[in-house]
Design brief:
The structure holds two protein chains of two kinds. By secondary structure, chain A is α/β, with parallel strands linked by helices. Helices cover 36% and strands 23% of the residues of chain A. The chains are: A alpha/beta, B mainly alpha.
Amino acid sequence: MSALENFRETWRRDRVWDFMVSTSGMRLDISHGTILYLEGVSVSFDGFKAIDDLNLYIDAGELRCIIGPNGAGKTTMMDIITGKTRPDSGTAWFGQSIDLLRLSEPQIAELGIGRKFQKPTVFEQHSVFENLELAMAGDKRVWPTLRASLNGEQKDRIQEILETIGLQEHVQQRAGSLSHGQKQWLEIGMLLMQDPHLLLVDEPVAGMTHQEMDRTAELLTSLAGRHSVVVEHDMDFVRSIANKVTVLHQGSVLAEGSMDEVQNDPRVVEVYLG
Amino acid sequence: MNPLSVLKNDRGGQIFLGLLLLVAVSVPILNLVVPEGHPLHLSTYTVTLTGKYLTYALLALAVDLVWGYLGILSLGHGAFFALGGYAMGMYLMRQIGDRGVYGNPELPDFMVFLNWQELPWFWHGFDQFWFAALMVMLVPGLLAFVFGWLAFRSRVTGVYLSIITQALTYALMLAFFRNEMGFGGNNGLTDFKDILGFDLQSDATRIGLFLASAIALALAYLACRYIVNSRLGRVAVAVRDAESRTRFIGYRVERVKLALFTFSAVLAGIAGALYVPQVGIINPGEFSPLNSIELVIWVAVGGRATLYGAVAGALMVNYGKTYFTAALPDMWLFALGGLFVLVTLFLPRGVTGLLRRKEATA
């Protein structure tokens, strides 16, 4: 392309620079029943193809489990959805109308995609209540945050989430002193405070006891319907949730279907056992 | 809203402000009312010294806000202090008028000495107090804003940020040492005569400056406490403890940092502006990187993230400094270094942390 064409392309009349995109007018449109579209997404790091022509669709209100061996691209996929990593090619749409690839991390969070990391990261010096308060959806600019105070409705909302995650008795406890499982639930609670449409959950039960695992499975299942949830984990835990499963391998989708279908798929067996 | 309501759960702050009020009332009385020669009489020297300490305490407060609560270890806050001081110094220079050594009504002495013919453009306006007062806040604030905008946007954090702030104050020091800068070179600005028409040498003016420092410190404390108690304060601590997590739940971390860093720089500038008329001189030495490091030590000694700890630390270390540099001049640097080592090893939460722990066990 000549320099002139480059220039024209850069300064097209309908060009809207990414940093000028405002999220204020954006509404999530799920009229077609699908909340997330990833199409033809590829990304490579130093020549290594972490994601290779990945196509994935998540329905609204669905609880989807993503499994795959190490290095299959599960984490990179979540990085792309949340705006942490930009793909080399492909598209990522949130509902019908929101192009995720043009938005920054905070903007994506604001529009309703919440992510829970593998390692629980809660604000250790803050109480459980304060953790939830900070995570609450609302105006997060500097000045409104300085002037913010909780109204009754917001307090009720925090109370409601506390009950959902089962930490009512620990409201005033410092988050740093919670057990590992409790921290995970608190973090899920913090995600819920943002009224997310889509929840991305990274290895939620790593390091949990069996009781805690059961409790977490229950919690995640109860969230589906109101929210769309994508859980990334190993076979064992995913079986206990028993839902639609997507298997990733070498950066693209290997198989998709119910747990039984996937388990009996010869390609999956080969990847996992071979 | 009652501004004192921010102290509701802040016992340290209540004690500190109570003591400050006590000092602010008793010092003028002991100086002006109690006759000289009486054992309770306070010399004007002591009044000014206390006033100077209070401006240091204000500076420490500014550092605690960004270091203790936001986790930004600024090793360049002395620069904002010095800039505020220079803005005030320029006003005081203009007040000298034709009473300088050279008797030139248009130019400060050092410009006559350098054979300058007219006032540089950036000195215009400084004969007005309101203008100088505005610059005291605007110049440090603007520098912090631009610096912070560049640094925080590029996500420069931790020790790298500390080093850059250190470089900032060092660069400013070198610049202000140059005569061509138009700020008096290595001699700085001095030989001040009066402020707002009041003689700087008179006891009443000294008391006035002391009171102004006390009031500024109290107001700044309330403002900082208000910020720290607000949700913004909790966001700041969240940034300190888990920055990327805070970003993920939707806060624009850069803007939180920028806002608090700029506010803190403005406080430091005000502290500098109150400091200069009391000590009577401002020179590039105030930009020295050592000063900025020393004031971080004040905060560490007093106890981070408490606000009143910063004030206590500034007062204790500076009292110690005044005492040691007079009694054992060679020992001071050893004492300071030793103090820092001791605090780091045995009192990670500072002296006020020690008191709080006692309270908790009692």
